[in-house]
Design brief:
homodimer, about 180 residues, mainly alpha, Arc Repressor Mutant, subunit A, Tetracycline Repressor, domain 2, 10 helices, about 70% helix, about 0% strand, DNA-binding
Chain lengths: ~180, ~180
DNA sequence: GAACTATACGGAGACACTCTCCGTTTTGCA
DNA sequence: TGCAAAACGGAGAGTGTCTCCGTATAGTTC
């Protein structure tokens, strides 16, 4: 990639991250990002063919955060329910960090063609690690993709309804109880 | 309302119902509805100020179906889990009947200003009736709006990911176990 | 049944958005 | 320095929501 192209790409991602964080996915237009990054729409679209692939680049650092959160939760010296709930809460709060992200990422979980496919693999892997760690404390047959979708669903509702943290916690509590062995 | 206005309104709702059912909320444009109903866009927008308020009119008959489903589920001669799961399944399948409806209706649950506000009251009332009927079989502190949101979240994920019925059933099973007393 | 007024109609178009085409500019190498 | 390849960026196509306002019609009054 030519030096000017690399500079532009970096600046676009940096600017877009700030705008997406401030306004959420839906409320941001590509023209707005292009103007803020001081490039033309054509340049923006050559680097990122769709708004979602731009979003994917913006969320690049998430994968690390997910794995860190898993490590922390499963190594806690606490009962299984608390460890599980710790993870579910972290996961949900990462999904709701950017408005509009939860629904999009969760919808992409089973779609290998999505721009988010790589991230989804990370999330599924994280949930699988949680399942392995908690092992017999969970109901038999619980799968990583089920946890991903359940928490994704909760996060999407929290996001679109702009619910306070305690409402989210109550819902995640129900999910945790449903996942844990009786 | 003038007779011609009433005729147009009725025809718009009838036509829109068919189109929404066939294509889902997002994929239908207001111009498309206007053309199909053989009215101008101006006429359509005078009757329904937004696409959502048109959708609300289209979904008018849902309230009855919800109450019928509650009656059926709670009067079943079966264990609490089966009765609960019966209702959750019915509720989720009604929400996913129209593509795009689940997320929208669930997001409107706490918003009195939404075009769906009246419907949301019906849903909340239905879930409250379920709570009253199952009573001590549920964990203490379970609220109607929590059930509405949890199932709404599941329905939204099922809808956007186009999941098969068994994946939905597995998720609803987790929710049911989380709601029921241990 | 004709005149009149309030009501409703409907199309042109304003505005916003995603995304593309292509002439112009810049870069980096020979 | 010259030159191809690469990148730029703006005009605009296409699609959507929603509005304005001149025109047509319904329903009432005489």
């Amino acid at each position: 990639m030519r030096a000017d192209a690399q500079r532009n790409r970096d600046r676009i991602v940096e600017v877009a991250r700030a705008i997406f964080r401030a306004k959420g996915f839906e409320a941001v237009s590509m023209d707005e990002v292009a103007k803020a990054a001081e490039v033309g729409p054509g340049t923006l679209y050559r680097h990122f063919a769709t708004k979602e692939s731009l979003y994917d680049a913006v969320l690049e650092a998430w994968a690390d955060k997910v794995n860190t959160a898993v490590d922390r939760a499963i190594s806690l010296d606490a009962p299984a329910r608390e460890r599980l709930l710790n993870w579910l809460t972290d996961y949900a709060s990462m999904l709701t960090e950017h408005k509009g992200a939860a629904a999009r990422i969760t919808a992409a979980l089973g779609d290998p063609g999505s721009p988010f496919a790589a991230k989804c693999q990370t999330y599924l892997g994280a949930n699988q690690r949680v399942i392995n760690a908690l092992d017999s404390a969970l109901r038999p047959g619980v799968e990583a993709i089920q946890i991903s979708r359940l928490v994704g669903g909760v996060a999407a509702v929290v996001d679109t309804s702009e619910l306070p943290a305690d409402a989210a916690a109550a819902m995640l509590g129900v999910v945790a109880d449903g996942l844990l062995a009786p």
